[in-house]
Amino acid sequence: MPVPLIDLTRNQAQLTEIEAAVVRVLRSGQYILGPEVENLERELCEYIGTNHALTLSSGTDALLLPLMALGIGPGDEVVLPDYSFFATAGVVARLGAKPVFVDSEPTFKNIDPQRLDDALAACERPKAVIAVHLFGSAFAADDVVRICNRHSVPLIEDAAQAIGTKYQGRMVGGYGLCAGWSAFPTKNFGAIGDAGFLTTNDREFFEKCRLMRNHGMAEQYLHHVVGGNFRMDAIQAAALRVKLRAMEEVTETRRQNAANYRRLFAEADLMEWAELPADMDRHAYHQFVLHVPEDQRDAAIQHLRGQGIGCAVYYPVPFHRQPCFAYLDCDEQDFPVAEDASRRALALPIFQGLTEAEQIDVVGALAKFVR
Q1: CATH architecture of 247-370
Q2: Out of 3.40.190.10, 3.40.50.300, 3.40.640.10, 2.120.10.70, which CATH number does the structure's domain 12-244 have?
Q3: Quick check: helix, strand or coil at residue 10?
Q4: Do residues 176 and 138 make contact, with C-beta atoms less than 8 angstroms apart?
Q5: Three-state secondary structure along 257-305?
Q6: Which of 130-147 are b and which e, b meaning 16 or more Cβ less than 10 Å from the residue's Cβ?
Q7: Residues 57, 278: contact at Cβ < 8 Å?
Q8: Cβ-contact 183, 241 below 8 angstroms
Q9: Which of 30, 106, 146, 242 could form an S-S bond across to 34 if both were Cys, CB 3.0 to 4.6 Å?
Q10: pLDDT tens column, 47-84
């Protein structure tokens, strides 16, 4: 039987709850912001452990808004990892600021603290750092926070893939000035459309972001600053409130799926062929990305898809090689880890609802390919 990369329809009991929540919103007549959004924000604070949470229209806007609130624009520099989803860099360029790319550390492919320190020292106008908790693994928060403090720049955590992730026993999302989160449908905490949110412990910053979420409007038709339309729909908030109640179960299920893969890869004698993702305090496994020989990666993908098994590459083109960033004139030799990861990465199904029998099929297909 085919094995999808992700299937959002397997938890029928939860879908029934979401349907009821959507009907509740439809009948309420309150479709933008309102009590569903306010309750979700309170529940997110309780779950993540921050003082404030602000629901937003997407994970991209959850990174764009704090940059706007910081007044970042032309001539400013924002330091960020070279290896991530495009939004991490795209929001910086949208404001006319310069993205400064930093290579990854080799274990989790997160931002390399030493290279971050060097990049900040070389910047003329560094105004912020965006560090990504990639694939659900936490970056070295203590080191990154210390470096940001030394250079007097705020840290924005890109936690788009990190709901449920812990670093040294503590949920991510409260280490920097703020964190931007995605609730895109395929995320571990996924809405039924576009959605995102921001968390922070800084009340003044929170109030500014909340003002800017709705065109900078504190009262109707009176605009104190120029913001944007970054509001969350009430239907998305209602659906996410249902999803949030199951987040601990989701995280543990994905972690169990990762443990199953480790056992199955060992039993199939594939541990020398594939480098499996390293585990950590609490890796949330938004993706299960292994690294395979570069000259076999694309053939392995073709083989898996031929067997009806979903797989993907995250991410095939690092920022320094993106055509839209050619003007930065980056040197490929400055990003050896990102280059290596982009050529060897292979993501396998890891979603909650994936069965052990399906995982056996996935590993069996890879074993057949390797043999």
Answers
A1: Alpha-Beta Complex (3.90)
A2: 3.40.640.10
A3: coil
A4: no
A5: HHHHHHHHHHHCCCCCCCECCCCCCECCCCCEEEECCHHHHHHHHHHHH
A6: bbbbbbbbbbbbebbbeb
A7: no
A8: no
A9: 30
A10: 999 999 999 999 999 999 999 999 999 999 999 999 99
pLDDT in tens, 103-140: 999 999 999 999 999 999 999 999 999 999 999 999 99
High-pLDDT (> 90) share of the chain, %: 99
pTM over 0.70: yes
Positive or negative: CA dihedral 67, 72, 74, 77? negative
Residue ranges of the domains in the chain? 12-244, 247-370
The structure tokens listed for 316 are 């095939």
Is 321 exposed, middle or buried, given 0-12, 13-18 or 19+ CB atoms closer than 10 A?
A: middle
Tell the residue number behind the tokens 């990369």, with chain if given: 5
What's phi and psi for 55, nearest 5 deg? -75, 145
Residue 196 in tokens: 């995102």
The residue type of 124 is E
Per-residue burial over 168-197, b if 16 or more Cβ lie within 10 Å, else e, is eeebbbbbbbbbbbbbbeebbbbbbebbbb
* For residue 327, cis peptide bond before it (omega within 30 degrees of 0): no
Residues 204 and 164: beta-carbon distance below 8 Å:
no
| Helical axes 356-370 vs 247-267, angle rounded to 10° | 30
pLDDT in tens, 247-257: 999 999 999 99
Q: For residue 218, what pLDDT is reported?
A: 87
164: left (phi over 0), alpha (psi -120 to 50) or beta: left
DSSP symbol at 186: T
Cα–Cα distances (Å) from 291 to 106, 107, 108, 142, 208, in that order, read: 11, 11, 11, 27, 42
167: Cβ contacts below 8 Å, ≥ 6 apart? 138, 139, 141, 175, 280, 281
